[in-house]
Backbone:
């Protein structure tokens, strides 16, 4: 039996509701796969207990990004922050990097919210997936009403892409460059009457390669994605997207991945459909990555009577489906093509599905409203764990081992204060390279790295780092040390400075070891934690190499 389901990101009949959430109409109703059961499951009368969740850190089980979409309110909600830092390795801004948020008038860009999110991410060892440079939805009115010929539209779009991608160059892992440019039948959105895309209408399909080309020119290292909904089950639509990718590749236009949004309903689509769709992306040559960018699993089958409770039995069905989806991803997508898996929200209460497509109670995510973990989190984790992605050493003592030798890059070490930090290829304690710290204007300035979550309470660590003054003829003899700065955040706002190595007087000419044993006595998750090396003399430049921390036996 076939069932008509509305799977698009907006629904015409509820336009008035959606205005409030900044979304506009999507005109298409599309058919859902055949095998969807429409019989509502009977509610068990007495809900049994929810199954136990023992996951200590989802991200610790994966060797690819485990992401979560977050609202602006994350920045002031410490309960939310704790869960994000504990379980996820990547953030997507749910709304604050969209066209309307970032470009409110033709001559004004608003970077404040994105800046704040990036600072939070960087302070907490999270990478960021940029969402989104070009989309037909959530665009400012001035853009929608823009008048000009094709060239003017291209220039306007390229200016948007270039300005934002340049602003964040080097700081993002990935960008959704273009979102939702296809119809369900695989044609371009805007190519048929009633479709809606100012970009297609005013520029034609070339807006897509143009946007990718501009993004690449602005940020040479970020991975560039095409992102869309229903690709996880609609093969006509995915075929259209793959044709576009093939054409872009043939024309030398950069594209690194396809994002499957994956706003889906429990047990629908079925896993064999999901696997077949993933396989199509995996088979693209030259290879590109596949990322699940916006996963949520709605418990209400649209059209059925709305569920009023989330029972233990339903939670088990959802847990199994999360397990199956993650397992399918790991089965089908080879390691070098895994862009990661992002869930679209942290707790059920914060999910957009509470008001989209109509206000309904929903339970689509991995955490309950109060941020306690759901069985779905266990399902997700069990699939990761079964695949043994991380070596046992790393899972047992997730962050007990820390080593930077600066041989390939700065390994996320960066400047503290006004200092500059660069990779030095002419000096090394061991190997070929080290880090050069220069341009300091105060004692506390130097080189630092965020290490939130690295230390476990009541463990002792052996700490070692090597330093050398950059000027062999220098007559200054600064005292140098490695310190851990922990900030406990909004609650009490305290900052602690913990000496990881005893201060050592450094004389020019030789590499000098900084060593110490550090006992971690703090049991709370820090708001921010940074390791840093400083020098008691204000302006001296120095090299740092081979920073290592091991669990003391
Ligand atoms: C949604 C957000 O979650 C809502 O808060 C907002 O009101 C509307 O947009 N596809 C996308 C996302 O690419 O940007 C959408 O996010 C969900 C559908």
Residues:
């Amino acid at each position: 039996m076939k069932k008509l389901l509305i799977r698009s990101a907006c629904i015409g009949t509820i336009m008035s509701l959606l205005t409030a959430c900044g979304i506009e109409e999507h005109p298409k109703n599309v058919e859902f796969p055949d095998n969807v059961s429409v019989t509502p499951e009977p509610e068990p009368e007495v809900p049994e207990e929810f199954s136990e969740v023992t996951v200590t850190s989802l991200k610790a089980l994966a060797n690819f990004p485990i992401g979560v979409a977050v609202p602006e309110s994350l920045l002031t909600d410490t309960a939310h922050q704790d869960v994000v830092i504990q379980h996820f390795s990547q953030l997507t801004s749910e709304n604050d990097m969209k066209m309307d948020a970032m470009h409110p008038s033709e001559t004004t860009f608003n970077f404040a919210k994105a800046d704040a999110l990036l600072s939070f991410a960087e302070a907490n060892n999270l990478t960021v997936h940029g969402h989104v440079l070009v989309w037909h939805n959530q665009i400012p009115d001035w853009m929608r009403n823009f008048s000009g010929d094709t060239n003017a539209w291209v220039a306007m779009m390229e200016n948007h892409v270039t300005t934002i991608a340049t602003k964040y160059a080097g700081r993002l892992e990935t960008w959704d460059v273009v979102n939702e440019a296809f119809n369900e039948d695989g044609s371009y959105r805007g190519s048929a009457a009633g479709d809606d895309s100012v970009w297609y209408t005013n520029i034609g399909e070339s807006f897509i390669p143009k946007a990718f080309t501009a993004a690449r020119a602005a940020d040479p290292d970020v991975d560039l994605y095409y992102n869309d909904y229903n690709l996880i089950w609609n093969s006509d639509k995915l075929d259209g997207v793959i044709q576009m990718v093939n054409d872009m590749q043939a024309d030398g236009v950069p594209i690194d991945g396809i994002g499957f949004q994956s706003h889906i309903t429990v047990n629908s689509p079925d896993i064999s459909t999901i696997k077949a769709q993933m396989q199509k992306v995996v088979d693209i040559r030259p290879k590109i990555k596949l990322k699940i960018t916006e996963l949520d699993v709605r418990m209400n089958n649209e059209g059925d009577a709305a569920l009023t409770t989330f029972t233990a039995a339903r939670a088990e069905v959802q847990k199994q489906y999360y397990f199956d989806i993650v397992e399918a991803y790991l089965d089908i997508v080879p390691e070098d093509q895994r862009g990661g898996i992002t869930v679209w929200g942290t707790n059920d209460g914060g999910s957009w599905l509470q008001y989209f497509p109509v206000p309904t109670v929903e339970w689509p995510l991995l955490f309950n409203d109060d941020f306690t973990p759901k069985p779905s989190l266990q399902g997700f984790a069990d699939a990761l764990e079964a695949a043994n992605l991380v070596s046992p050493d790393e899972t047992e003592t997730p962050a007990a081992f820390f080593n930077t030798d600066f041989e390939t890059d700065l390994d996320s070490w960066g400047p503290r204060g006004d200092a500059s930090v660069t990779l030095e290829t002419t000096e090394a304690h061991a190997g070929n390279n080290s880090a050069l710290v220069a341009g300091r204007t105060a004692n506390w300035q130097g080189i630092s790295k965020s290490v939130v979550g690295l230390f476990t309470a009541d463990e002792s660590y052996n700490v070692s780092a090597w330093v050398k003054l950059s000027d062999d003829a220098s007559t200054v003899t600064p005292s140098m040390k490695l310190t851990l700065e922990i900030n406990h955040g909004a609650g009490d706002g305290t900052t602690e400075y913990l000496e990881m190595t005893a201060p050592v007087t450094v004389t020019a000419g030789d590499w000098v070891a900084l060593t110490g044993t550090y006992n971690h006595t703090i049991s709370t998750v820090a708001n921010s934690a940074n390791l840093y090396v400083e020098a008691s003399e204000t302006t001296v430049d120095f090299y740092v190499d081979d920073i290592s921390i091991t669990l003391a036996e």
The radius of gyration is 25 Å. Residues 1-37, 395-400 have pLDDT under 50 and may be disordered. Residues 497 and 544 are 20 Å apart (CA to CA).
